[in-house]
Design brief:
11 helices; mainly alpha; about 325 residues; single chain; two-stranded antiparallel ribbon
């Protein structure tokens, strides 16, 4: 229905809107406007893609937009500001899962329609998308459970975790290499997805609740990288751009948070593995009942107050 030129133009406008929206997110004053601008850019990219590929009818698209919009509105109204970290973790997980499923579906489509997958090395993006996407999904799920209180915020450790983690990582890489040398693709991709799920869980469960915000930002970056890899699989320019923007901004946010906490990302990860989440350098303390007392900075407090509609002052406390 749409010409290639029209679709490319819509993608270009969407990419510009993404960048403009991201720029406005740097200030609390313009953050809401930036969110709307980026959301409109995503809407434009989705509609252009659906029309160009003739995937859905206009009625089906409108129905999907209405259902999705209602779900988003309900979540936005119900979730408090204090619940934003776990909501972001959930979004990261769904984004990673979507990237992995799309990459897997594209692999299945090529195998079914073409009778073969050609040179497996030409589709490295699909393997990376599945690997990173599934790690992001399972890791974000654990982060959501920890932040929402449905799972203990204390580091969960077990004997031999380094060996299990290293073995899973080596097996995941080995499955990709095996695909390159001519192994059964469907079976190996299934194994890769399963190992990636285990990797995500093993990476996050040993990390204490005090370091969860850093991990959520890191998982956000991974979800962007997974989306960018899926963009290469689909040869979709706007998906590559949006994924790269999310990945880059997530990495920068992770670095900023680590600097604010006087921590290194590697120390957060390895420290969690070693059970160092009670270290005073991370500005947090773990209580016996699993709850976390986290210190903050004047800048973070000012940002929270700028968004607050009601502020309760309790004299003599804190």
């Amino acid at each position: 229905m749409f010409s290639e030129g029209f679709t490319a133009g819509a993608y270009l406008i969407a990419a510009i809107l993404f960048i403009r929206g991201l720029k406005k997110l740097q200030s609390p004053v313009t953050a809401r406007r930036g969110n709307r601008v980026a959301a409109f850019g995503m809407l434009l990219a989705i509609v252009a893609t659906l029309f160009s590929q003739q995937i859905l009818t206009p009625a089906e698209m409108i129905g999907g937009l209405v259902v999705g919009g209602l779900l988003g509105a309900v979540m936005a109204k119900r979730v408090q500001m204090t619940g934003m970290p776990e909501l972001v973790a959930a979004f990261n997980g769904f984004g990673g899962l979507a990237s992995a499923l799309v990459a897997g579906a594209e692999v299945a489509r090529i195998v079914e329609q073409g009778g073969g997958f050609g040179d497996p090395r030409d589709h490295t993006g699909a393997y990376l998308s599945i690997l990173v996407g599934m790690v992001t999904f399972s890791g974000s799920l654990i982060a959501f459970l920890k932040l929402s209180g449905k799972m203990t915020g204390n580091p969960i450790q077990f004997t031999g975790r380094y060996i299990v983690l290293s073995t899973c990582a080596a097996a995941a890489v080995g499955s990709i290499v095996w695909i390159f040398i001519g192994g059964d693709m469907v079976s190996l991709i299934t194994i890769l997805a399963g190992l990636s799920l285990i990797l995500g869980i093993l990476l996050v469960i040993p990390i204490g609740g005090a370091d969860m915000p850093v991990i959520v930002a890191f998982l956000n970056a991974l979800s962007g990288l997974a989306a960018a890899a899926t963009g290469f699989v689909l040869s979709n320019t706007v998906l590559i751009i949006s994924g790269a923007l999310v990945g880059a901004s997530g990495i920068m946010l992770t670095r900023v948070m680590c600097v604010a906490m006087n921590r290194r990302l590697w120390h957060v990860l390895v420290g969690g593995f070693g059970g160092d989440s009670d270290d005073s350098s991370d500005g947090a303390k773990q209580l016996e009942d699993g709850r976390t007392i986290t210190s903050t900075t004047p800048d973070d407090t000012a940002i929270l107050l700028s968004y607050a509609r009601k502020v309760i002052i309790v004299p003599g406390y804190g």
